[in-house]
Design a protein that fits this description.
Length: 301
Amino acid sequence: MVGSAVCRALAANGFGNVVCRTHRELDLLDPAAVRAFYAAEKPDVAIIAAARVGGIGANSADNARFLYENEMIAMNTVMGAYEAGVKRLLFLGSTCIYPRLAPQPIPESVLLTGALEKTNEGYALAKISGLKLCEFLRRDRGVTYHSLMPTNLYGTGDNYDIVGGHVLPTMIRKFETARVNGDAKVSLWGTGTPLREFLHVDDLAAACVFMLKMDDPPDLVNVGSGREVAIRELAELVKCATGCPAAIEWDSSKPDGTPRKLCDTSLIRSLGWKPKIELEEGLARTVAEYRIAVADGSVRL
């Protein structure tokens, strides 16, 4: 989802020589394969958007896999870029790197000041390693390697896996399925009380291009919409966007995750960037794209 959005944004900004690889074409867990890729393509800039991702269920069920695979991806792609002579690199992480009980909104400065959320600790640790490697290489070796930490993303090309997916695409699939099947109820995880912030992936892609145009960007920058919604409110918004009349039931036996996660975006806004896609607009667009993908069989599950 993120990589495709960044490619679209680069093309829209006139960057024609963009080199991409799918997971099938390049295994980022294989350091030799990554080194060979860099040696063959000789990129001027590297954007690291790849990751093993998933929702609360997937992360909490296999923190070991999320730590190992994301750590390997980060180390291989960032160090491989440096060894190949790449002078500019943008590393993408997630605001789950911050402490579980961080002050709200979460400023970049609170990194490593408290305990992480246990349900996605493995993923968070790997992303922290990646951003720190970028920071150290920049400080010690003089390359411009920097990081963006986006909030919860959604939009074009998302994954709609019910079991391991993120909250928003999971909701869209559940409400759409209930609407089509005429189901009376939709069951959602947790209590619905946590507060979350959502950013359309095209806004993130625009932020990536914006930061890459800066000569001297900060090491670490949050990217978010600045708007938070309770999960219960989000469910009502998705229900409205899909036109599903089903009742919502909350399964409180399932985990809620971090109680609140709103990132402080004052830094990137002070640099001149702000998001453009409101949540309601983004949801309507995403639901329409999901329906098209279901109809033509291209939906990611």
